[in-house]
Write a structure and sequence with these properties.
Layout (H helix, E strand, L loop, with lengths): L1 H35 L5 H27 L1 H18 L6 H8 L4 H49 L6 H31 L9 E4 H11 L1 H6 L3 E6 L3 E4 L1 H18 L5 E8 L5 E7 L6 H4 L11 H7 L5 H11 L3 E6 L5 E7 L3
Parallel strand pairs: 2-4
Antiparallel strand pairs: 1-3, 4-5, 5-7, 6-7
Length: about 350
């Protein structure tokens, strides 16, 4: 309703302005005709008055627009400069937008706020991009440096067979690490695409988790870890291969961060809300409260000093979180340093 009234008022003002311009043109023409005593035909007189009215209307309109629309001109000038800065990759534009925020037009203020929000989001994306590149470079550079160093050592002809074998094992391990980083990056990139399509089938979730535990038996047996399993028979409809990666990442982490003679408990049960939940609890080194807020970020490693000794790329939990999101699962982390970690995944009822 307000918009219609504004449009009606604008049309009325233009009409009045047009009539006044023609009236002024008629007055000027009549004065000139009286002063210089000339006589034209009626058609020419009307055409001259109309042309004069339009000319006056344009001139006066131009003068008034220069006065009344000076804010708009300043707006477009500043706004253009801001867009140029964004185009150059500078997203810190709050100071440049400040003059626009003082303008009275509500539409201008709304536009300024939208542009500022857009710039903030672009800035956050740019920060994430730079962090991602820096993290990838760091993760790749570390094994490459190691491989390069031990390759040079292998060139020593006087090297005994024991050291040579040891160096070759290190090179092989670092090569596998590089391959794993590349594989996880490709996997995570594919999962984060908006059009990623799941391949859901119905399968026994308890069988899948049991098979994983049996497959990894050499790893947890070598550390004399006691694995306690409680798996209720459960059918689930989801992407079987992706869900296996969730349990694989979480269980491998539990083995990796649990000391010798520790304990890992794996359960598949129904909670009080009759939701299926998978819980993996270990007696490992635990995670600080501050780190718990960031463990699902790409390349984030809790307690880097300890992680450096254990290894890992910091991508596993990012993959877990993305697959869980695709299946509508929620993840809860309960942990204390040196007291172990409990990760619970709640599966929504279908």
């Amino acid at each position: 309703m307000v918009t219609k009234l504004k449009a009606l008022g604008s049309s009325l003002m233009v009409a009045i302005f047009f009539v006044l311009s023609n009236l002024a043109s008629y007055t000027i023409f009549t004065w000139l005709k009286t002063k210089y005593d000339f006589s034209w035909s009626m058609i020419w007189e009307q055409a001259t008055i109309a042309a004069g009215g339009l000319t006056l209307m344009v001139i006066i309109g131009f003068i008034l627009s220069r006065f009344f629309f000076r804010h708009e001109r300043a707006y477009f000038k500043i706004f253009g400069a801001v867009l140029e800065e964004i185009g150059r990759g500078n997203f810190q534009i709050s100071e440049q937008l400040r003059p626009l925020q003082r303008m009275d037009d509500g539409n201008i203020r709304d536009t300024v706020l939208q542009v500022e929000k857009m710039a903030e989001q672009l800035g956050e994306m740019e920060t994430l991009r730079q962090d991602f590149i820096a993290n990838v470079s760091h993760e790749i550079q570390s094994p490459l440096t190691s491989i390069s160093g031990f390759t040079k050592l292998l060139q020593d002809n006087n090297l005994d067979s024991e050291k040579r074998t040891h160096y070759l094992e290190i090179i092989q391990a670092e090569t596998s690490r590089l391959s794993k980083i590349s594989e996880n990056l490709l996997k995570l990139t594919a999962l984060e695409k908006n059009d990623y399509q799941l391949n859901p089938t119905e399968f026994r979730l308890d069988y899948q988790i049991r098979d994983l535990i049996l497959t990894t038996e050499p790893q947890w047996q070598s550390k004399h870890i006691d694995v306690i399993v409680e798996l209720e028979p459960t059918k689930f409809y989801g992407d079987e291969s992706l869900l296996y990666q969730i349990w694989q990442n979480l269980f491998h982490n539990a083995i990796k961060f649990t000391p010798e003679n520790g304990t890992i408990q794996v359960s598949l049960t129904q909670n009080k809300q009759q939701q299926t939940q998978v819980t993996i609890q270990d007696s490992g080194i635990g995670i600080s409260k501050a780190d718990q807020l960031r463990i699902f970020e790409r390349f984030y490693k809790a307690d880097i000093s300890r992680q450096a000794k254990i290894g890992g790329s910091g991508l596993g939990l990012s993959i877990v979180k993305r697959i869980a999101d695709l299946h509508g699962m929620t993840i809860q982390v309960d942990s204390s340093e040196d007291k172990g970690t409990t990760i619970t995944l709640q599966i929504p009822n279908k």
